[in-house]
Amino acid sequence: MRRTWLLAPLASAVVAAAVVFSATGAPATENASSTVDRLRQCRSGDPAPTVVLVHGAWADASSWAGEVRMLQRAGVRVRAIANPVEDLTTDARYVADFLQTIRGPIVLVGHSYGGAVITNAAAGLAHVKDLVYVDAAAPAPGETNGQLSGSRSVLTTRSPATLYDTVRGPSSAPGAHELYLRENVFVEDFASDLPRTAAVRLWASQRGASTAAFMTPSQTAAWKTIPSWFFISTGDKIITPASQLAMAGRAGARVTTFDGGSHLTLISHPEAVVSVIASAICDTTR
C-alpha cells in the first residue's frame, strides 16, 4: 500500500514522520493501467515533460526497465542514462551536461546514490521542474552520500570487510577504490524483496561503485528551489526510511511511503514508482 503525504520542512525524522499536513497524489489503490491513463492525460501539456532516470550504486540504467516500459506505454518521453558512480561532483556534471541536451521541461528522477547526483545536477537548470527521489539520498551542501544511510542501515552497522569486495579502481580520486556488494548482502539486504534467483542474477552483474562517490561532499541542493517528491520503501535496509523522511522533511517534499519493498522496489514494483513520477508530471503540466 502507498501513502502520500505533504511534509513541511522539519529537522528530524521523528518530527517529519509525525506531522502530516494533507493527503495528496494518486489513490493508494491505483493500478498500472490507471497510472498509464493518468499519464496520458497529463502529458498532453505543451510542451510535455521528458522524464530522466538516474540509477544508483551497484546498478545500471536497466534497473529502470519497468518504469521505462510503463512511461513509454503512456507516450511519455523518457531517458534512463548511465551514472558513472565515480565522484559526486563529476557524476553530477556529467548528468547536468546531458540534461542540457534536452529541450523542454524535465522531471528528474534519482534512485539511491542517484538522488545525490540529481540534487547537484539540477542546480541552476531552469527546465528541471520536479525532482523525484526513489529510496534515495538528498544531501544538503557539505554532506556526503555516505553520511545519509541512517544509523540502522546495514551499511552503517556492519564492518566494510563484511559488506564489500574491494578492488583498486580507475577513479582519479587519490586512494579511491571500487566496491562490490558481497552476495549475501546484495541478496538479503539490497534486493530482499526480489526472488532469490533474480537477486543473485543482479548481484552477478552489478557495477562497481567508487569510494569517492560516497565520500565527496555535495556542493549544492537543488531541492531548495525545485519541487520534490519522495518514494520511500519501509523495507529499505540500505537508506533507512527514517533517514529518508528526515531528508524529505527538510526539502518540503511530497512523500509516498510504500509498505514493504526493499532498496530495489524500483525493480520489484515499478508501477508504484511510476505512480509517483506521474504525480510529478501532472504537477509540471498544470
- SSE pattern, N- to C-terminal: EHHEHEHEHEHHEEHHEHEHEHH
Compute the gyration radius: what is it? 17 Å
Shape: globular
Average of per-residue pLDDT values: 89
Largest sheet: 7 strands, mixed
Percentage of β-strand residues: 15-25%
Content-based structural category: alpha/beta
Number of DSSP helices? 13
Give the number of DSSP strands.
10
Helix coverage percent: 25-40%
Topology of this structure?
Blueprint: E1 2-6, H1 13-18, H2 32-42, E2 50-54, H3 65-73, E3 77-81, H4 88-99, E4 106-111, H5 113-121, E5 128-134, H6 154-157, H7 160-163, E6 164-168, E7 177-181, H8 183-190, H9 196-204, E8 209-210, H10 211-215, E9 228-233, H11 241-251, E10 254-258, H12 265-268, H13 270-284
Parallel strand pairs: 2-3, 2-4, 4-5, 5-9, 9-10
Antiparallel strand pairs: 1-10, 6-7, 7-8
Structural commentary:
The chain is α/β, with parallel strands linked by helices and 286 residues long. 37% of the residues lie in helices and 18% in strands. It contains 13 helices and 10 strands. The chain has helices at 13-18, 32-42, 65-73, 88-99, 113-121, 154-157, 160-163, 183-190, 196-204, 211-215, 241-251, 265-268, 270-284; strands at 2-6, 50-54, 77-81, 106-111, 128-134, 164-168, 177-181, 209-210, 228-233, 254-258. A 7-stranded mixed β-sheet has the order 1-10-9-5-4-2-3, sandwiched between helices. A 3-stranded antiparallel β-sheet has the order 6-7-8. α2 runs parallel beside α13 (270-284), α3 crosses α13 and α4 (88-99) packs across α5. The longest helix has 15 residues, at 270-284. The radius of gyration is 17 Å and the shape is globular. It starts with a strand and ends with a helix.
